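Quick start: what a row looks like.
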Amino acid sequence: MNEFRYIIGATTELQQGLIVWENKIREYVDTYYQGNEENYIDTNFYRCIYKIREIASDIFEKEQLIRGVIDDQGLLAAVCRIQETSILLDEELINCLEIESITNSPWNTIEYPLAEKRKGAATSLIEGIIIESRQQGLPNILKLIPIPGAIKFYQDIGFIETDISGDMILTYNEASMFLLDLEQKRESASFD
C-alpha cells in the first residue's frame, strides 16, 4: 500500500508541486494529445486540469483551505480545497466540511503507464481530512459533489448520495469504518 504525507495549507512544497503539475500538463498535452485541447476534452485528464486551475486561481486568497498529499517520491499526489458549510439532513441543518475540486496528479489521470503513478492518493487525502477534522473538533460529516465518473469511488469509501443536487456525504460512523478499513489494510500489507 502506498504511503502519503498529508499537507495543510498552500505550503511552499504544495505550491511547487502545482508548478510541477502545470509543467507535466504541457508535456502530456504535447506527448499524448498532439498539442490539441480538442483531443482530451471529456477525459479524466481534462477534468484534472480544470480542477488544478480552479484551485491555483485563488490559492493565495484561500491558502488555509488547501489540502494535499505528497507521495514517496516527494511529488504532490492529490490536492483539494475544503470549507465549512452546512447541509439539510433529515429536516435539520447540520454543519459539515465540504471537499471541493479534489483531484489526483495529472500523471494519475493519463491512460498510459507512467513511472510517477501512485494508487491511493485521493483516498489518503480524504483520510487526512477526516483525521484533521476530528483532531480540531470540526464537523463530523464530509460533503462533496462528485463528478459522475467518481461516484463509485466515493461510495466505496462510504459516502452516500443525498437528495440535494447530487451531494454525497460521509457520516461520522462511515468515516470511522473507512479509517478502520485502511488501518487493517496497512496491517495486512506489512505481513505480506
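That is the whole record. The longest helix spans residues 12-32. The mean pLDDT is 92.
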